[in-house]
Write a structure and sequence with these properties.
Layout (H helix, E strand, L loop, with lengths): L1 H4 L2 H21 L2 H31 L16 H32 L60 E3 L10 E8 L2 E11 L6 E5 L5 E7 L10 E8 L5 E9 L4 E6 L5 E10 L8 E11 L1
Antiparallel strand pairs: 1-10, 2-3, 3-10, 4-9, 5-8, 5-10, 6-7, 6-9
Length: 303
């Protein structure tokens, strides 16, 4: 027995090393390939353990169990080998579970929602000229403007692989990344009309709630501005949009919208490289600041 018990320590060390290797592998190697490797190891060690278990049963039945190997004193007992393979099988299974958990965690981390606050690093917007500051606008009449229809999808030119804007190109704004500000893309309904390719922006204070876009090479911005029909806190609120170029100069007049009264706009972008769109929300009667979300319905830029 002394010749065989000496293998207990190496087997215990082997199992401990296998556990440490499994832990390191879970954090170092790619999860999906590691799951496959762990599965193959578990099957192999499990098959070995099953074979050894049959051998142990045979030895017990024939009263050889525990007698050791008298001719080969350097080999461990069958029971010790069975213990080692069972331990390695368990380690392989646990490594597979660890790799699978890492893969699931990595997948869940890629779907985080965008922050609802404006970009913290965005610079303060330039103060508009006092002559361009819009005066408080009374509540718009629902019949003051005709109800817009969804923006017709103009045929789009194929984008230049080099990034150069070619004439005749129409690009939906939801395909481009905003350089500043909070945005969320999707389909939104305004005045019972669904706009499939829309951008939602926050609207409260113009010096905080704005978005910026790279529009170099484009000459027109087209969109239906408004508030979505299912906006929860939009009763009695209005949103006022103002467009600015890279020099802080306002482009055209402010555009005022309310729930049920969206507005279709076309903004001239001639000479504009960086477009900033501010949005201020306020109560239509008291002019107090209101916080809400507004929509660029089917917004496009045309070269």
């Amino acid at each position: 027995m002394a010749g065989t018990n000496r293998f207990s320590t190496p087997i215990a060390i082997t199992l401990l090393v296998a556990v440490l290797v499994g832990l390191v592998a879970v954090f170092v190697f790619p999860p999906l390939p590691l799951v496959v490797v762990a599965l193959l190891l578990a099957v192999a060690f499990g098959a070995g353990a099953y074979g050894l278990s049959r051998r142990v049963a045979y030895l017990k039945q024939n009263q050889y169990f525990g007698q050791g190997n008298r001719q080969g004193e350097g080999r461990p007992l069958v029971a010790q080998l069975f213990t080692a393979t069972v331990g390695l099988t368990v380690v392989s299974v646990l490594m597979g579970f660890g790799a699978a958990f890492a893969a699931v965690s990595a997948g869940a981390g890629g779907t985080a929602e965008p922050s609802a606050s404006p970009a913290a690093f965005s610079p303060e917007p330039p103060a508009p000229s006092p002559t361009l500051e819009p005066s408080p606008t009374p509540e718009p009449s629902p019949t003051a403007e005709t109800e817009p229809s969804p923006t017709d999808e103009a045929p789009t030119a194929e984008p230049d692989p080099s990034g150069t804007v070619v004439p005749g190109m129409t690009v939906f704004l939801d395909e481009r990344r905003a350089l500043a500000g909070y945005t969320q893309t999707g389909a939104y309904s305004m005045s019972a009309t669904l706009y499939q390719r829309s951008v939602r922006v926050s609207c409260e204070r113009p010096n905080e709630d704005y978005t910026e876009w790279n529009v170099a090479g484009f000459h027109t911005f087209k969109a239906t501005l408004g508030i979505s029909d299912d906006q929860s806190n939009a009763f009695g609120a209005i949103g006022e949009f103002v467009f600015y170029n890279q020099n802080g100069n306002a482009i055209g007049k402010p555009h005022v919208v309310s729930i049920g009264s969206p507005k279709k706009v076309e903004v001239d972008l001639t000479g504009v490289v960086r477009l900033r769109i501010t949005c201020s929300g306020r109560d239509s009667k008291t002019s107090k600041t209101r916080s809400l979300y507004t929509i660029f319905g089917d917004a496009t830029i045309v070269s």
